[in-house]
């Protein structure tokens, strides 16, 4: 093949190639075949500036990489936000909504049921509303205990039988069902007119007040009761008549319901170990008390009052002054019996 050059010169392709080859060998300015890194970098930079389509692609890839790098913190932020936001919020919400109520429920369970005031009268077991004195009938009760006491788990009562003899019973505070227990007995003697019945606190023995001379008067003895056998152990003599008893500040609060045949009552605190009265308070006016019970949580003293005749009233008592604060009428029945607080859960 021949190629026409300028000026009318014609040369063959073979001759042209030979001339180019010879010129490359002799020209010392021609760059050697081995190209240094700085040259490649310069050309790459130039290409990046827009002289090479391929280099432009590299630049675009670099830009993409840079953009990806720039978005990496955002990804991390998203992950962090995801962990610290919804997940943390969900966990916190779960803890707050599940754990807290569960704890509250556990605390409530630990606190147990609220104490309620129970009484017996006219063949019924009833429960009183402490704010209004209104009664709710739990159920019929037979035989009807004339005294009640509660030790934290079991409600005990005293019933009188023919003879007379006196039997310890247990009462279901949810139904009024009575379960017979042992007859009270005392070594070498006869049990006479057991009246006040109380525990001085949960875990304490059951105490009962007895007449020492067969008459309901100031000659009284305090005895502990074996609730399994009914055996009594006399602890000592009391300085006064004890018609009613209730736990009070770790000891026993005793009530002489009728002073010298009058319609008035007096209070004393009795040491449950020695039976000695530690404090005697004044009479509670012209009002006979037929029941006494101290709220286990608030220590408020509640009483059943009979002011000469029907009706019966629920009152609170200031034992240091004898002042009575009326709450309301409980009933107009013909009899009154046991009177005690009990904390129970009924189905």
Shape: globular
The fold-level CATH name of the largest domain is: Neuraminidase
**Could you say how many structural domains there are in total?**
2
Distance between the termini: 118 Å
Q: Mean pLDDT score, rounded? A: 74
Name the CATH class of the largest domain. Mainly Beta
How many extended strands? Answer: 23
H and E order: EEHHHEEEEEEEEEEEEEEEEEEEEE
What's the helix count? 3
Q: Mind describing the biggest β-sheet?
A: 5 strands, mixed
CATH superfamily of the largest domain: Kelch-type beta propeller
Report the CATH architecture of the largest domain: 6 Propeller
Largest beta sheet: strand ordering: 10-14-13-12-11
Q: How large is the share of residues in beta strands?
A: 35-45%
Briefly note the structural class of the backbone.
alpha+beta
Helix content: 25-40%
Radius of gyration over all CA atoms, rounded:
50 Å
Write the topology of this structure.
Elements: E1 2-4, E2 10-12, H1 13-26, H2 37-51, H3 53-111, E3 116-121, E4 124-128, E5 135-140, E6 147-150, E7 155-161, E8 165-171, E9 178-183, E10 185-186, E11 197-199, E12 206-211, E13 220-225, E14 231-238, E15 244-248, E16 251-256, E17 266-270, E18 277-281, E19 288-294, E20 301-306, E21 312-318, E22 323-331, E23 339-342
Parallel strand pairs: 10-14
Antiparallel strand pairs: 1-2, 3-4, 3-23, 4-5, 6-7, 7-8, 8-9, 11-12, 12-13, 13-14, 15-16, 16-17, 17-18, 19-20, 20-21, 21-22
Helix pairs in contact: 2-3
Q: Which terms would index this structure?
A:
Neuraminidase; alpha+beta; 347 residues
């Amino acid at each position: 093949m021949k190629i026409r050059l300028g000026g009318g010169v014609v040369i063959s392709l073979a001759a042209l190639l030979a001339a180019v080859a010879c010129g490359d060998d002799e020209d010392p300015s021609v760059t050697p075949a081995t190209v240094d890194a700085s040259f490649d970098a310069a050309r790459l930079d130039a290409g990046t500036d827009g002289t090479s389509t391929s280099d432009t692609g590299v630049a675009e890839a670099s830009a993409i990489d840079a953009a990806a790098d720039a978005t990496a913190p955002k990804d991390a932020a998203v992950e962090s936000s995801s962990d610290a936001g919804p997940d943390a919020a969900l966990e916190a919400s779960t803890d707050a909504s599940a754990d807290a109520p569960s704890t509250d429920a556990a605390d409530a369970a630990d606190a147990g049921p609220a104490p309620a005031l129970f009484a017996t009268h006219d063949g019924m077991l009833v429960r009183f509303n402490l704010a209004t004195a209104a009664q709710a009938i739990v159920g019929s009760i037979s035989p009807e205990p004339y005294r009640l006491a509660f030790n934290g788990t079991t409600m005990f009562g005293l019933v009188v039988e023919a003879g007379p003899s006196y039997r310890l019973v247990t009462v279901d505070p949810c139904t009024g069902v009575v379960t017979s227990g042992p007859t009270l007995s005392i070594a070498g003697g006869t049990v006479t007119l057991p009246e006040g019945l109380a525990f001085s606190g949960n875990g304490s023995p059951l105490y009962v007040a007895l007449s020492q001379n067969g008459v309901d008067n100031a000659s009284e003895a305090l005895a502990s009761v074996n609730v399994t056998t009914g055996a009594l152990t006399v602890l000592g003599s009391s300085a006064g008549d004890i018609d009613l008893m209730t736990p009070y500040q770790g000891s026993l609060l005793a009530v002489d319901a009728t002073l010298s045949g009058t319609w008035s009552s007096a209070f004393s605190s009795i040491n449950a170990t020695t039976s000695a009265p530690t404090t005697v308070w004044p009479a509670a006016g012209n009002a006979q008390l037929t029941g006494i019970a101290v709220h286990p949580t608030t220590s408020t003293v509640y009483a059943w009052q009979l002011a000469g005749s029907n009706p019966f009233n629920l009152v609170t008592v200031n034992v240091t002054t004898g002042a009575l604060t009326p709450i309301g009428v409980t009933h107009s029945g013909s009899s009154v019996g046991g009177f005690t607080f009990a904390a129970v859960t009924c189905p």
